[in-house]
Amino acid sequence: MTQWNIVWKSYMEDCKRTRIMSDIYSSVSWMHKIVLIVSAFFFVMLVVAVVSTQLFDLPGNKNLWLAGVVFFEIIFLLAGHKAKNIYKEKFYSKHDLSQIPPENYRHQEIRYLKFRHKLIKENIVPENIKILLEILSSREEMENVSGLYAKRFSGFTIAVIIALIVSLLRSASPASLAIISFFGIILGFFIYSIASLIPSPVEKIRELNYFLNLYKNEDTALLKL
């Protein structure tokens, strides 16, 4: 397998966000897994309860349920953050952790660590990166001109949907607007989280370019440690 194929396959398969999340979940104790599952379950159930109560005017303590939504969301986020730290400390040395990117955009730290580990394992040294970057540049040019009509149609469709939502909100009561806004923020957060698991082809290429440049500028001697 050529070096380009190794790099491309490693990034596209080993560094997928879904794969990272699965690895993180597998690295924690059974008690930690229970906390993640239970907090996510009750968060979803309470969201459904509050929305159902509001839409169908059912009896129930909405304020208590709203507090429960916030509580279990915070528990889930804290448990997830702790699980990520456990995974990094369990599988990577202090030297590895010193090489991570300065930001952690969409689990970028762990994905770079996995990518870097694969390159070292396959004996791809920084001196060989230049030709890989040239191939990657050509790949990006090809992706930039693909799917232009589909992108334009998607933009038009989203604009129509937003216009319909705005027209419906104008007739809503202040109480309904407050509830809709609250859950809109929560729903938007989860939609963003899910969408971040499926980056665009150009985004993948540019991040791969970033990872290769980070690796290229490491000290070659340190890679053998």
Task: Write up what this structure looks like.
The chain has 225 residues and is an all-alpha fold. Helices cover 77% and strands 0% of the residues. The radius of gyration is 22 Å and the shape is flat. The mean pLDDT is 77.
Q: What is the terminal-to-terminal distance?
A: 25 Å
Question: What is Rg?
Answer: 22 Å
Strand fraction equals under 5%
Q: What is the share of helical residues?
A: over 70%
**Total beta strand runs:** 0
Overall 3D shape: flat
Task: Please provide the ordered H/E string of secondary-structure elements.
Answer: HHHHHHHHHH
The number of helices is 10
Content-based structural category: mainly alpha
Q: What's the average pLDDT? A: 77
User: How does the major sheet shape up?
Assistant: none
Catalogue the unreliable spans.
Answer: none
Could you name the key traits of this structure?
225 residues, single chain
